[in-house]
Amino acid sequence: MSEQNANLRGALFALLAFGIFASHDVVIKYLGGSYSPFQIVFFSVLFGFPIVTFLLMRDARPGNLRPVHPWWTAARTVAAVITGVCAFYAFSTLPLTQVYAILFAAPLLITLLAIPMLGESVGWRRGLAVIVGLGGVLVVLQPTTATLELGHVAALAAAFGSAFASIIVRKIGRDERSVVLILYPMMANFVLMGAALPFVYQPMPLVDIGASAVISAMALTATACLIIAYKTGQSVIVAPMQYSQIIWASLFGFLFFNEGIDQPTLIGTAIIVASGIYIVLREGRGDTSRTTPVLRTRSRAGTPTAPRVANFLPRGQRGPQAPDHPTEEK
Q1: Domain segments of the chain as ranges
Q2: pTM of the model
Q3: Between the ranges 48-62, 139-153, 161-175, 307-321, where is the mean pLDDT highest?
């Protein structure tokens, strides 16, 4: 297969993956109208456990389930739990387009966090792109004219939590087993959400229990498509496909929830997406980033039941070892 055809196939699988993820978020929003995010996360993780456990049986690396970096693993687990709950809550309470616009800030936050946590050298071009992109978030939020809701805070927390968890994986991912990186957050979600369940539980009819199972099935199906996309196409081609979710969000929000997209959200989203794509392209050049933290962040934020994409890629595609000296961005 030629490189052009491979990239096209990778892009198409990525578009399919993010279309399924967007449908996954519609089901979350539907359930969020009646149930607490703790209850939704609990049942989605419960239904996802058997399939994820089956997938993890392929991990033939010797060892045990004790993490090599316990404190970083614990920090990532906490971040993953917060991200999942906050994302589910944000989807339940805000228009889909606003949630996506805020979550799209995650690559900008990854670029910032990579400086202290990975020793990444960020030149003025990528630095300016981050500032402009974060300005786009302010355009969406309209802090001086609009009333900020708890859903906006939750979406921001999900974006930050996702970025923080992703950076930790870039820091310790070569040392930790895949089973540790996947099972610890799932177990934490199961235990913590289960502990909260008696205080928030609402009886669920069979159709809503089925919807919880659908959330898990969609997350795993979309992740499988994303794995194929990254195995087939170049990261610099596949990564920007995540922004196609805003198209699905606009369509689904209009069809199912009578949502429109206001001008500030449209303008702010355009700014955030442009900044994110620019950062991806700069990292893709290879001479402006030593750790390519954004390009190596392949999993979708806010999906507690979905395993990390990188765990199922050939080791050479998971990210090169960082050189001893950072390369200055030109």
Answers
A1: 3-307
A2: 0.89
A3: 161-175
For 166, 219, 288, the CA distances from 178, given in Å and listed in that order, are 14, 18, 29
- Residue 301: left (phi > 0), alpha (psi -120 to 50), or beta? beta
Cα angle value 151/155/156 (rounded, 5°):
120
Distance, in Å, from the CA atom of 160 to the CA atom of 188, rounded to the nearest integer, reads 19
Spatial CB neighbours of 236, under 8 Å, sequence gap ≥ 6 = 280, 281, 283, 284, 295
Strand ranges, E, within the chain: none
Judge whether 98 and 265 are in contact, CB under 8 Å: yes
C-alpha–C-alpha distance, residues 127 and 324, integer Å: 22
Residue 48, C-beta contacts closer than 8 angstroms, at least 6 positions apart: 186, 216, 219, 220, 304, 305, 306
Extract the tokens encoding 288.
Answer: 């402006």
Q: Between 323 and 264, where is the model more confident?
A: 264
Q: Is the dihedral of CA 28, 137, 301, 116 positive or negative?
A: negative
Tell me the two tokens of residue 180: 């540790």
